[in-house]
Amino acid sequence: MPEVVQSARWVAAQRLRESERTDRLFSDPLAPALSGDEGMAALKLSEKYNPRHEETANYIAIRTRFFDDVAQADATAGTRQIVLPAAGMDARAYRISWLGTTLYEIDHPHVLAAKEEILQAQHRALECKRITIGADLTQDWIHGLLDSGFRSNEQSTWLIEGLFYYLDEPAVNRILKDSFSSCRARQRARNGPCEPILAHCSVDAAGSQGDGRTGDGLAVWHGRPCRALRCAWLGCCHERPWGRRREI
Ligand SMILES: C[S@@+](CC[C@H](N)C(=O)[O-])C[C@H]1O[C@@H](n2cnc3c(N)ncnc32)[C@H](O)[C@@H]1O
Q1: Which of 61, 49, 59 is nearest to 20 (CA)?
Q2: Substitution candidate for ligand 1 out of 4, 30, 38, 132 with most atoms within 8 A of CB
Q3: Which of 46, 80, 87, 179 has its CB surrounded by the most CB atoms within 10 Å?
Q4: Is residue 161, in this structure, part of any structural domain at all?
């Protein structure tokens, strides 16, 4: 199994584990299928050899819930386009109550092909319109997105989750630049717990532009405090037996 598919399945296995907890932050019924035996095997290896695997699990659970909440809030508020670069084996398309939203999932073609095969066997109803774009995010992927119907002059939310630690800094900046320039929008960025995991982009009614038009100008950095994560449900993470308070 190529490493990239394995990383996507490993994250799905983490979501499976979280879904089984009584104090879970979310439930992902598709996680077992999307993880598969390969994802579980990778997870068991990391649980065996990564001494901080519980923190990793906590981090991914928090990240997932945070992104889910952003997606849900924006969809409810009227955003009709959500873009997931490096969507991997994420099943957000099925976890959120969408209201006529189009979800654009971008990832390597072979990752999306493997995901498609799994999803088709699951026969789950989908509330959103889900469009997949097979592309290398370090190459030209914007044209694929635009050709798939993405409207750059309309509001959109972008969730970039678990990608940037695979790439060098110039590639990260390029992706952020491409993302934000493609939607000709007023941008603001939010931070994730310990990496620039979420880039949130919106356009107001007048389409006016704010600062942070380029990757360089975005307030996205590694390991800074995250005000956006100070939400009610986070408290329960601190109370988990293994859930040491993270520096967030
Ligand atoms: C750790 S997984 C995270 C997947 C998903 N966002 C999640 O949280 O479940 C990383 C994903 O990034 C994708 N990825 C890494 N480099 C990429 C690239 N250059 N082009 C497209 N996708 C890439 C991998 O294929 C994989 O699906």
Answers
A1: 61
A2: 4
A3: 87
A4: yes
Q: pLDDT 10s digit of each residue in the chain, 248 long?
A: 566 678 999 999 999 999 999 989 999 999 999 999 999 999 999 999 999 888 889 888 888 888 888 888 888 988 899 999 999 999 999 999 898 999 999 999 999 999 999 999 999 999 899 999 999 999 999 999 999 999 888 888 888 888 887 888 888 888 888 877 766 544 433 333 222 334 433 222 222 233 322 222 222 332 333 334 444 555 544 444 443 333 33
Q: How many domains does the chain have?
A: 1
pTM metric for this prediction: 0.80
130: containing domain: 54-238
Of ligand 1's listed atoms, the one at least distance from the Cα of 89 is: 9
Tell which residue, 116, 121, 81, has the closest CA to residue 101.
81
Is residue 35, in this structure, part of any structural domain at all? no
Tokens for 132, please give them. 């997949």
